[in-house]
Amino acid sequence: MSGDILRSGSQTSGPLKPPGIDKKSLHLSHLPERHIMKPSTFPRTPGSVDPNNPPWPAFRGYHTYSFANATMGVRLPTILSKAIQDVLMTVNTLSAESLIIDLLGCVKRMEELKAELEGNGVLRYIKDDGEADVALWNKEIAKYFLGKDFMNATWLFAEAYKYRRLRECFTLSQHWADYDVFFRQKCDTFSRSTDAVFELSCRFVEPFMHAAHISEGEKLDAEKLMFHELTQICLWGNSTDLSLLINMTEEQIKSLQSTGGEALAQTEKNILGNHTEQLWDLVKKLKGKTRGGRIDFILDNAGFELYCDCVYADFLVQMGFASQVRFHGKRYPWFVSDVTKKDWEWLLNSMVYGRLFPDVTEIERESLKSLGERWKEYERNGTWIYEQHPYWCTGYTFWDLHSEAPDLFLHLSKSDLVIFKGDLNHRKLTYDCAAPASTPFSVAIGSMASAPGAPPVCSMRTIKSDVVVGLGKNGDEIAANLNKEEDGWKISGKYAVVLLSGGRPGEQVRFA
Ligand SMILES: [Mg+2]
């Protein structure tokens, strides 16, 4: 700027300077002082935030220090290899030639995708496979990621894009559009969680009754203690994430799924940002509404975690905190273990009709069956509703939910509490960027907290990736100490957060 002023000044006014004059000899005492602009400042102002430029620096695959790097370089190709094996297992069971050839076409496309990932190819447009979300994906690529590759696009977008491309491998086929390459794995982890499954079914099969002759105050105290423990079960149920369990032994999985009281007390101190008390204050007030409020779960993983979510939702209904629970799943296979409609139906039906657990007692089997029957009745009478909005399977974060899916924002604004489960939902809430760990949750989630009509939002997440916020005023110190003392604390699933934003419920939703 100042250079332009000097040039134009020298051309239009005063005598021409002798050649070789030093700029320093000019007297500029009446001009404003020079400002030293930092090359970039964070957080970015709202107007300069976009999917490739989050409010704080994005995580990208080429950051060798981040989990993004390991995911893009190793984990995603491994997941694809396993997915190809799954499809080939299915090929081996087929007899009709047209089905075989069609499915082998899917394998070929998966192999091409794997080669692109391993060769760090440029992100291309999604092909027109007849799906309703093609335009939304290609709009985001055109506006923010044109010419970017798997490693230099934001990690969040590149990873989500991979699952959409995997979807495309099948939607371009004649007969296999609904094939789920992860279905076998998802079913397996539920079947292998015997101890934890029956621990919960035997405790919760009978509708809950308070002890006789206790006061209202005592009842509320008892409910509060149960709420705390069930919140933790719902939280740690999130440890079961198939995309991360690739190298875990069964023993390790079992210890992650532990539902015993002692283990829960131990694990409470691993909840680094803990708003469970505030959550209880909010939930207990819902009892005052006509037979409870509306609670929404934005689901994460199928199988054991979904089962824990349902136990929690059942408790909220039985205690009169919720009169309606809406569960939000994915439209197609997503981040390996996420819940689809098929997984939802599979869980409820296999509880009632299945023979998944050959070694349990008759009483245990009955407990699981009765629990499943109660949940199916909730579905029939509209107490529980399963939904699958297309926005949950896009590369956009939830900062853009208000602008890119206004119908969904309006829908959620009518909820009394929206619980986001798991790591990916947390990444999307917080724009998956390097915000300081002391950043308040309601600041980190942008318009999901600040837009008029934003519902109360809770994130229940075991920490499995780089973004960590909401640890309180000394959060930066806590994170710095953990960085020093415990390698991999952000990806082990050993730590967690339960964070709440009050939102702006009741205000009229507005769109620009
Ligand atoms: Mg998941």
UniProtKB/TrEMBL annotation:
<comment type="similarity">
    <text>Belongs to the damage-control phosphatase family. Sugar phosphate phosphatase III subfamily.</text>
</comment>
<keyword id="KW-0479">Metal-binding</keyword>
<dbReference type="GO" id="GO:0005634">
    <property type="term" value="C:nucleus"/>
</dbReference>
<dbReference type="GO" id="GO:0103026">
    <property type="term" value="F:fructose-1-phosphatase activity"/>
</dbReference>
<keyword id="KW-0464">Manganese</keyword>
<dbReference type="Pfam" id="PF01937">
    <property type="entry name" value="ARMT1-like_dom"/>
</dbReference>
<feature type="region of interest" description="Disordered">
    <location>
        <begin position="1"/>
        <end position="23"/>
    </location>
</feature>
<dbReference type="GO" id="GO:0006974">
    <property type="term" value="P:DNA damage response"/>
</dbReference>
<feature type="domain" description="Damage-control phosphatase ARMT1-like metal-binding">
    <location>
        <begin position="72"/>
        <end position="472"/>
    </location>
</feature>
<dbReference type="GO" id="GO:0004427">
    <property type="term" value="F:inorganic diphosphate phosphatase activity"/>
</dbReference>
<comment type="function">
    <text>Metal-dependent phosphatase that shows phosphatase activity against several substrates, including fructose-1-phosphate and fructose-6-phosphate. Its preference for fructose-1-phosphate, a strong glycating agent that causes DNA damage rather than a canonical yeast metabolite, suggests a damage-control function in hexose phosphate metabolism.</text>
</comment>
<dbReference type="InterPro" id="IPR039763">
    <property type="entry name" value="ARMT1"/>
</dbReference>
<protein>
    <recommendedName>
        <fullName>Sugar phosphate phosphatase</fullName>
        <ecNumber>3.1.3.-</ecNumber>
    </recommendedName>
</protein>
<dbReference type="InterPro" id="IPR002791">
    <property type="entry name" value="ARMT1-like_metal-bd"/>
</dbReference>
<dbReference type="GO" id="GO:0097023">
    <property type="term" value="F:fructose 6-phosphate aldolase activity"/>
</dbReference>
<dbReference type="GO" id="GO:0046872">
    <property type="term" value="F:metal ion binding"/>
</dbReference>
<dbReference type="GO" id="GO:0030643">
    <property type="term" value="P:intracellular phosphate ion homeostasis"/>
</dbReference>
<dbReference type="InterPro" id="IPR036075">
    <property type="entry name" value="ARMT-1-like_metal-bd_sf"/>
</dbReference>
<keyword id="KW-0378">Hydrolase</keyword>
